[in-house]
Amino acid sequence: MADVAETASTVRYRLGCDIGGTFTDFVLLDTSTGRFEVHKVLTTPRDPSEAVETGVLDLRKRLPDCLERTEHVIHGTTLVINAIIERTGARTAILATKGFPDVLEMRREIRYDIYDLNAGFPAPLVLRPWRREVTERVYSDGRVLVALDVAEVREALRSLAAEGVESVAVCLLHSYANAAHEREVARIAAAEQPQLAISLSSEVLPEIKEYERTSTTVVNAYAKPLTDRYLHRLEERLREQGLAGGLFLMLSGGGIMSSATARQFPVRLIESGPVGGVLAAVHLARQGGIEDLVVFDMGGTTAKACFVHGGELPISTEYEVDRVHRFKRGSGTPVGVPTVDLIEIGAGGGSLAAVDRLGLLQVGPRSAGADPGPICYGRGGVQPTVTDADLALGYLSCDYFLGGSMRLDLDAARTGIERVLGRPLGLSVTEAAWGVHEVVNENMAAAIRTYCAEKGGNLSRATLVAFGGAGPVHAFGFAKKLGINRILVPRGAGVFSALGFLVAPVSFETSRTHLLRLREATPEALGRLFGELEQGAAAMIRQAVPGVPVVFARAADLCYAGQGHSIRIPLAADGDGRIRLEDVAERFLREYRERYGYTYDDLEIQWVTLRVTASARQDMPPVALPFAPAARGNGGAAKGERLAYAPARRKMIPHRVVELEKLSAGTRLEGPLIVEDVSSTLIVGEQAAVEVDRRGWLLVTLD
Asked: What are the strands, taking DSSP E only, across 188-301?
């Protein structure tokens, strides 16, 4: 914890703030010592910035001048993805090449489930009357076939503005090869309809594949006015509270960027919150020499997972949101921007439990959220949730939830479980509660098995890193179902995503499609193309942190000529910065063989998309993940015993309860055991043991 007695002039902070569906989490880092303050408040769904202000005010009660001494606020939010799911974004239009207004609705013309005759898709974000056409045409190599009809553009923009449209996605054919027509549209809009927010596909996603480029640009346009208003309001609130530093946003690809860039490209915030936890988990695993991880984040609304192989952050540009079927690829809206490869695997602590029309127990996808929340919160909830079930099983404490700042109502939770689940199913309260807990664990385990099989992951060699408010509660049962015998739980697990924001680099990825056979490429030509991308990416970095040196990482999407799917390959340059083409071919063939089991001798390799990630080269603060443990002894760690459910015995049995903050390094304890933290609770079942690492981590070993 930060020491208020330190000399004020030497204390500088960074503040991580993660807005989730139920709680808003804060981690305040003292950059000189690496020590933390953590805090949680209930999220305010109608205006999330209210929860941010409330949390900041609470932190200022502990450290009155903390915001004035905060260098950066790093913020993650579910604002964009929630706007898509809940359809609360701006009134959006598409401006498309004549003959191509319905790309968004035609999609790929592929059925994601060939046996489902009634397979549905998400409703398009743009209504049919607001899909407008303009005369123009560009070849795939960038040559202009038909010039842009400027008069048509003026009329289309004028009529859209008159109809109340707020935002326009400009998606002209092959603009990734020649963006001149789209830029002309933006110039006309700025001069004649400045109230319209404009998103150009040549800036949002200058890549081949018309549907994905259109879909991504539409998502950007749909969220742009909402994001702009929200960030403006948030910055005002923080300034009023005394923030002297800058506001940065967590991007889906693992970097952070200025609020100005976030306003321009809100689609890059699509998975802003969960990414922070993956970053922190990878950072933590590198410290411990762990290469293969299953990162498990279970919060109040959903549970997400990510498979990390070789200690490298998995990045994907084939991401979907708003799926009609949560676990069926192709049933959602594709978003082509760089995103850490996460999968939603189940419900969260606030997910509602009910008996379906077949008389079976169902958990999720609906959530009680923060308002009214679970029954046990005492805020008006009447439908039992996962949190209510965990409380009834004895896994949570009525008196130590959020470190004792929020008391839970056990009797109300038990009454709700009996009324909604127990009586209809003919089960006791404990049996019904265990059913909820078990259904959640089994659903998550089934999803992660499929996901890891697709990624070629070996679960038997992986370590489960569990965090989020509900993650450590469910980690033991979840790991047993997956056959994983090691669980790593960091201190501060309940605010781990916000903690991850503090180790994220200031970075930004740019890309451009450039179709070219590998044998036709030259190091000089590739150097020029990558140089142009580096200039654009560096400009974004310097906008966020002026004067800081910028470093670049190059990559490319390659495939065999004629294929529709490509593989992302990192590119290394030799001493003079030239790309070695023979190394590119060798790396592609090795990666292709690992993924598919074979390679082709008679097909040529083709460049598809060039990528550059620019990062600010800064000396990171001493982020000691996680908090340092007590120096010696376990004095005061024991808190007594509590009855909690033991599935192997099918009954409630005594579990020892200990306080995490008072456990010292090297401590080893046998299950059954409950380890309580301010922001989360770890359950260790029978035939398992937990050891406190020298860094303060909890390592659970299952028999």
From this structure: 197-200, 246-250, 256-258, 293-298
How do strand 688-692 and strand 698-702 relate by DSSP bridges? antiparallel
Question: Predicted confidence band at 633 (pLDDT cuts at 50, 70, 90)?
Answer: low
CA geometry: angle 482, 270, 537, nearest 5 deg? 115
- Which of these, 693, 493, 634, 466, lies nearest to 38 by C-alpha position? 493
Which of 4-13, 281-290, 361-370, 506-515 bottoms out in mean pLDDT, i.e. has the lowest?
4-13
Q: Quick one: tokens of 677?
A: 């933290």
Radius of gyration over alpha carbons of the chain, in Å?
A: 26
Do residues 699 and 488 touch, judged by C-beta distance below 8 A?
yes
Query: What are the residues whose beta carbons fall under 8 Å from the beta carbon of 302, sequence distance 6 or more?
Result: 21, 344, 346, 347, 348, 351, 367
Q: Residue 289 contacts by C-beta under 8 Å, 6 or more apart in sequence?
A: none
Return the DSSP state at 605: E
- pLDDT value at residue 3: 43
Asked if residues 421 and 413 have their Cβ atoms less than 8 Å apart, the reply is no
- What is the tens place of the pLDDT at every residue in 561-588? 988 889 999 887 665 667 888 889 999 9
> β-pairing, 668-670 with 688-692?
antiparallel
Rounded to an integer, what distance in angstroms lies between the CA atom of residue 680 and that of residue 403?
9
| Strand order from edge to edge, sheet including 681-684 | 638-646, 651-659, 673-676, 681-684
Per-residue model confidence (pLDDT) at position 701 = 93
| Residue whose entry in the numeric block shows the structure tokens 């070219």 | 516
For the chain, the residue count is: 703
Q: What is the pLDDT of residues 211-237, one digit of tens each?
A: 999 999 999 999 999 999 999 999 998
First to last CA, the chain: 35
Q: Is 311 exposed, middle or buried (0-12, 13-18, 19+ CB in 10 A)?
A: middle
Biggest CA–CA distance in the chain, Å, is: 79
Please state, in angstroms and as integers, the Cα–Cα distance from residue 552 to each residue in 138, 617, 642, following that order.
31, 10, 54
What interhelical angle do 471-482 and 429-455 show, nearest 10? 60
Range scoring the smallest mean pLDDT among 169-173, 321-325, 465-469: 321-325
Q: Estimate the share of the chain in helix, then strand, then coil, as percent rounded to the nearest 5.
A: 35, 30, 35
In sequence order, which residues have a C-beta less than 8 Å from that of residue 442 and are 6 or more positions away? 481
Percent of the chain with pLDDT over 90: 47
Q: Does the N-terminal peptide bond of residue 626 adopt cis geometry, omega within 30 degrees of 0?
A: yes
